[in-house]
Design brief:
Hypothetical Protein Pfu-838710-001, alpha+beta, CYTH_domain, 210 residues, eight-stranded antiparallel barrel, 40% strand
Length: 210
């Protein structure tokens, strides 16, 4: 749980075509089911549940609620989070722990849910989270680097195709409101015609094989 002095997140996020297989050490990733009750103008109210011993298949199309019901007893961590708009890789995010049983009931009763497996790895100078989405957001894969301050002079692994830090479509609340499956072809066309891009206002970007 964050304290009042650290209620900001600093991260940069990237679209990936595929999950880097060498980062899968065989241990089960974190299973995350989260639901958004407010997701308008980049403001959000989120309830999140986490389980540490459940893996979704990479091509799993299972929806979030079905996953939550199937693995209900496995969720041991839960939180409620208030998020402000994301501006240049910085977002206000006040997160507080809540009882997992209460969180399950909240998610079952409302909001717009998503489901994903989260893998974590230390690459070069930073810790990275790689999220593999299920349900109507499959087969989306997003990698993010998060720090306690602005993410500058970042070493970007080669499996990161293009930066999506400021693309609200890829925010988790954006994906809850309008799942990736609805605009996947449109985005792939954009990427094909305009090519990848990386934000230039955060020092020097360095590309590196992991």
């Amino acid at each position: 749980m964050r304290d009042d002095l650290s209620d900001f997140e600093y991260e940069r996020r990237f679209f990936c075509h595929a999950f880097p297989a060498d980062l899968d050490d065989g241990d089960a990733p974190i299973l995350i089911v989260q639901s958004y009750y407010v997701h308008q103008d980049n403001f959000a109210l989120r309830v999140r549940l986490q389980a540490h011993n459940v893996r979704l298949a990479m091509d799993d199309q299972t929806q979030a609620i079905a996953t939550l019901q199937r693995h209900r007893d496995a969720f041991t961590d839960a939180s409620v989070t208030v998020k402000g708009p994301a501006i240049g890789g910085t977002r206000y995010e006040a997160e507080r722990d809540i009882d997992p049983d209460v969180a399950v009931e909240l998610v079952l009763r409302g909001g717009s849910p998503i489901v994903k497996n989260r893998y974590s790895a230390w690459l070069g100078e930073d810790g990275w989270d790689i999220d593999v989405f299920g349900g109507s957001n499959a087969p989306l894969i997003v990698a993010e680097a998060e720090r306690r301050g602005p993410v500058t002079d970042l070493v970007i692994p080669d499996f990161c195709v293009t930066e999506i830090t400021d693309d609200v479509r890829f925010s988790n609340d954006g994906l809850a409101e309008r799942p990736y499956a609805l605009w996947k072809e449109q985005f792939e066309y954009e990427l094909l015609t305009t090519g990848p891009h990386f934000l230039e206002g955060f020092g020097t970007n360095r590309r590196e094989k992991h």
